Amino acid sequence: MGTFTLIPPMSLGNLNKAEKLSLLKRYMKLMPSGSDSESPDEISLLADSGVPVLNISAGQVTRMNGIIDELTELTMQASSSEETPEMQQVEADRDTAGNYIVRRVLDYAKLPLAAERTAAQRMEPALRGYRDFANLPTAQETEVINGLLIDLAKPEFADSVVTLQLAPYIAELRRLNDRYAELAAL
What we know:
The chain is 58% helix and 0% strand. It has 7 helices and no strands. The chain has helices at residues 17-30, 58-74, 84-106, 114-127, 138-152, 158-163, 167-185. Helix 3 crosses helix 4 (114-127), helix 3 (84-106) runs antiparallel to helix 7 and helix 5 (138-152) runs antiparallel to helix 7 (167-185). 14% of the residues are buried.
């Protein structure tokens, strides 16, 4: 008996463009030709007759060759859009604005004025969960920031927001988060 090698299952989604292209080319080379030749094991592509043995029409072979040609052109092209630089900047800016708000509240012991310390101390339990929001995946981060904005808008924190002078930072965070969500939807 011979030996068998178990090939673990794979997903095409795990392959990059060059790997997909290589896989398709190798697959196409494995198709036997429909012609009667001296060597029945000969490997070739015949777009004019397809692969009748495998019930693959000439149209399917032609279409696959077209896909391979398209992939060859696209293999090393960047896939980012025009909005990517703006999106990256908005992401960085909203992290900065959100972190400023959260750090200002969580680091209440370092605030110089007693009124600010008291205001931040009142808000600290509600904002503690937002400490590392900037490390989340961006889609989650958008939703977490929405939650942060809702918490900051609660009536019990209105005086604290005024005392800590957070209103312009909250408005900027809301604007940046909305802009990021808008860019992500494109």
